[in-house]
Amino acid sequence: MDIIWHGNSCFTLKSKNATVVINPDHSIKTPLKGDVVISSLGEDAKLAEVKDIKKTFTWPGEYEIAGVAISSLPAWTRSRSKEESGEKGEDTLIFCIEMEDVSICHLGGLGHKLTTEMVEEIGDVDVLLVPVGKNSNLGDKAEEVVDQIDPRVVILMGDEHPENFAKDLKAQLGEKLEKYTITSVGKLPQEKTEYYVLTKV
């Protein structure tokens, strides 16, 4: 399967049987094609056109198409300190996608440390898509959230040059790739988490 980044928080996940497009916001000019669109941008968000889609998934719950299992759980865009004062900010969604035995998690517009219940619901993650940069709600909490989930691979997303924020995660980036290709789950890193930035396509 291939993971392709289109800018901001927009990705295409392409397996042999299905293609999932994540967060195709209105700023994405690349022609997009897929079987299902999932969006953490809110039901009122203006999404870019995606050809051939069979379903748009924008709510907490579960969905399956062509052997691809998708689940989402609600989160919010403010920090935990804001949560304690009753100010949770705007709603967002965390998406977990299972494709070809690979588990991928997209953190959406997350802006807070995960609760124990959320970590349990997310479960084991092979590839974590993490927002960084000036438009990220996570800010300096990104490193802690990565540690909570403990994925095998992290792909940074957000600004035009998300690699500029790798130091905030104390991350040593691997080679910049046009796409991240997974031939089998067994070939993913075993000993430590690897970090990557993709070329915008």
Structure overview:
With 201 residues, the chain is mainly beta. It has one domain (2-197): Metallo-beta-lactamase, Chain A (4-Layer Sandwich). It has three helices and 15 strands. The longest helix is centred in the C-terminal third of the chain and has 8 residues, at 142-149. The two termini are 16 Å apart.
Shape: globular
- Distance between the terminal alpha carbons, to the nearest Å? 16 Å
Order of helices and strands: EEEEEEEEEHEEHEHEEE
Q: What's the helical proportion of residues? A: under 10%
Give me the count of strands: 15
Strand order of the largest sheet: 8-9-10-11-12-13-15
CATH class category:
Alpha Beta
Under CATH, the topology can be stated as Metallo-beta-lactamase, Chain A
Q: Low-confidence stretches at least 5 residues in length (pLDDT < 50)?
A: none
Beta-strand content: 35-45%
Instruction: Quote the average pLDDT.
Output: 91
Return the CATH architecture.
4-Layer Sandwich
Oligomer: single chain
Q: Quickly count the domains.
A: 1
What's the alpha carbon Rg, rounded to whole Å? 16 Å
The count of helical stretches stands at 3
| The CATH homology group name | Ribonuclease Z/Hydroxyacylglutathione hydrolase-like
Largest sheet features: 7 strands, mixed
